[in-house]
Amino acid sequence: MSAVGHRTTLQEYVSSGLGGGAQDDGLDAVIMAIADGSIQVQRQVQQAALADALGATGETNVQGEIIQRMDQVSSDIFVETLSSSGHVAAIGCEEIEKPVIIEGEVADGYIVLMDPLDGSSNIDVAVSIGSIFGIWKKRPGEKVNEDSLLRPGDEQVAAVYVVYGSSTVLVLATKTDVCGFTLDFRSGEFAVTHPNIKIPKECLYYSTNEGNHKVLDEPTQKAVANLRNKYSQRYVGSLVADFHRNLLKGGIFAYPADRNRKDGRLRLMYEANPLGFVAEQAGGAASTGYQRILDIIPEQLHQRTPLILGNKDVVEEIVSVINGG
Ligand code: AHM
Ligand code: MG
């Protein structure tokens, strides 16, 4: 933070090298496009009931899930702000079956994968929801096509999430820093409130859907029972909000594979990869139970994955129990 009384804004932070002296090659514009979109989404979410914009669109997405009207509104907003940034070559989105290829001629463009509004079941009931973004740099000289989006999480250059909660918080992770910003409604800007985020050493919470216990295999039941015996449970049901709490307070999120969801529930490219990147940069870890999330070579844009996310030592312990240890 700079002079007393002035909090560094997100714009200042990204313009001065993203906390680590990065070159200005358009990543700042991509991040500001996400921030601008999130301010619009936050307003729409707050006004949704008054504008009769809650509820479902009547359509389902490629994964067969009902699209909420606010899912659609948020997707449209971010596609617009990212496309207009001039630095995004392609967008992959939970609500859109095929990638949005923007290129033409974005020379040093970025590829952005997003869940524009995470926590669908909480939209209509005034519970925290959010947006999640993984950011990859286009390969030099690459002519972007559908396969260009299938990059491992390890190659992300940055990840961002926003929580629309009792305050609106944006967390940006790069290879050099994880920093949290809060939206100041007076100025309309994000300002640094959580510099240099590191997940606390002590794990306080576990977040899992306990209703799934009966469909877990035996080793996974044992791993969850261990969590239950040691930690307090907190489960919002919006991944982004559960993760944010656990990142700041110390905690573990678990949505393992089960009998009904052999590939897990959450999506690799725009949920597990970005939050796995944030977790690792903050000293935590992310695993499927069998493999590091960021090592997965993706096969499909909308593929699912089991996800164990949070304090590194606890992730390792769960992985060991799931594997019969
Ligand atoms: P969404 O992207 O359609 O909102 O779905 C993902 C959400 C996550 O935010 C959350 O962790 C999970 O689904 C909750 O699932 P469940 O209701 O099965 O506990
Ligand atoms: Mg989601």
Set down the secondary structure blueprint.
Elements: H1 10-15, H2 27-47, E1 56-60, E2 66-68, H3 69-83, E3 88-93, E4 96-101, E5 110-118, E6 129-137, E7 156-164, E8 168-174, E9 178-184, E10 189-194, E11 205-207, H4 218-230, E12 232-233, H5 239-249, E13 251-255, E14 266-267, H6 268-281, E15 285-287, E16 304-305, E17 307-310, H7 312-322
Parallel strand pairs: 3-5, 11-12, 11-13
Antiparallel strand pairs: 1-2, 3-4, 5-6, 6-7, 7-8, 8-9, 9-10, 13-17, 14-16, 15-17
The structure holds 2,5-anhydro-1,6-di-O-phosphono-D-mannitol (AHM) and magnesium ion.
Feature tags:
single chain; 5-stranded mixed sheet; 325 residues; 2 domains; D-Maltodextrin-Binding Protein, domain 2; binds magnesium ion; alpha+beta; binds 2,5-anhydro-1,6-di-O-phosphono-D-mannitol; Fructose-1,6-Bisphosphatase, Chain A, domain 1
Care to describe what's here?
The longest helix has 21 residues, at 27-47. Helix 4 (218-230) packs antiparallel against helix 7 (312-322). The protein contains seven helices and 17 strands. The strands form four sheets. Strands 4-3-5-6-7-8-9-10 form an eight-stranded mixed beta sheet, sandwiched between helices. A five-stranded mixed beta sheet has the order 12-11-13-17-15, with helices on both faces. It starts with 9 loop residues before the first helix and ends with a helix. The chain is an alpha+beta fold and 325 residues long. It folds into two domains: 10-194, Fructose-1,6-Bisphosphatase, subunit A, domain 1 (Fructose-1,6-Bisphosphatase, Chain A, domain 1); 205-322, D-Maltodextrin-Binding Protein, domain 2 (3-Layer(aba) Sandwich). The chain has helices at 10-15, 27-47, 69-83, 218-230, 239-249, 268-281, 312-322; strands at 56-60, 66-68, 88-93, 96-101, 110-118, 129-137, 156-164, 168-174, 178-184, 189-194, 205-207, 232-233, 251-255, 266-267, 285-287, 304-305, 307-310. Magnesium ion binds next to strand 5.
